[in-house]
């Protein structure tokens, strides 16, 4: 079974959705300005993988949940983003409704 790491694709999609450059994202998460663009490019190309702390900072900066970067399918990635955008109380109600429908 062939497994392609979804992180590079998800990172690029999230960054482009926010309409910021690789350099700006890198600087915003605390990378040195001189290397910010290059490091972000390496992450998006899959040449290097950011450590967990860096990835958390990227997720916060791009307003996506951390698990979004690991979604293998576009459908699941979309569901994760949509859930993330729902306010916490409404999300709890939605999850209750989903659970009820699974049990019945």
Commentary on this structure:
The chain is an all-alpha fold and 104 residues long. The relative contact order is 0.13. The model has no long low-confidence stretch (mean pLDDT 94). It has a single domain (6-103), classed as 434 Repressor (Amino-terminal Domain), CATH 1.10.260. The chain contains six helices and no strands. It is elongated, with a radius of gyration of 16 Å. Helix 2 packs across helix 3 (33-45). It is 67% helix and 0% strand. This is HTH cro/C1-type domain-containing protein. Pfam families: HTH_19. Residues 11-69 form the HTH cro/C1-type domain. One of its GO terms (molecular function) is DNA binding.
Shape: elongated
**Can you give the helix content as a percent range?**
55-70%
Structural domain tally: 1
Number of helices: 6
| Low-pLDDT stretches | none
The number of distinct β-strands equals 0
Radius of gyration: 16 Å
Sheet with the most strands, sense and barrel status: none
Strand fraction equals under 5%
Please identify the structural class as seen in this structure.
mainly alpha
H/E element order: HHHHHH
State the fourth-level CATH superfamily: lambda repressor-like DNA-binding domains
**Named CATH topology:** 434 Repressor (Amino-terminal Domain)
- Indicate the CATH class: Mainly Alpha
Report the span from N to C terminus.
35 Å
Quote the average pLDDT.
94
* CATH architecture label name: Orthogonal Bundle
GO molecular function: DNA binding
Protein name: HTH cro/C1-type domain-containing protein
Domain HTH cro/C1-type: 11-69
Organism: Pseudoalteromonas ruthenica
């Amino acid at each position: 079974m062939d497994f392609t790491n979804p992180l590079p694709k998800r990172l690029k999609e999230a960054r482009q959705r926010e309409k910021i450059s690789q350099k700006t994202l890198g600087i915003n998460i605390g990378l040195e300005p001189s290397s910010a663009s290059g490091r972000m490019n390496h992450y998006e190309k899959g040449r290097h993988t950011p450590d967990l702390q860096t990835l958390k900072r990227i997720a916060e900066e791009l307003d996506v949940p951390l698990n979004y970067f690991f979604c293998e399918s576009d459908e699941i990635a979309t569901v994760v983003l949509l859930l993330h955008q729902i306010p916490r109380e409404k999300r709890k109600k939605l999850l209750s409704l989903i659970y009820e429908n699974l049990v019945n």
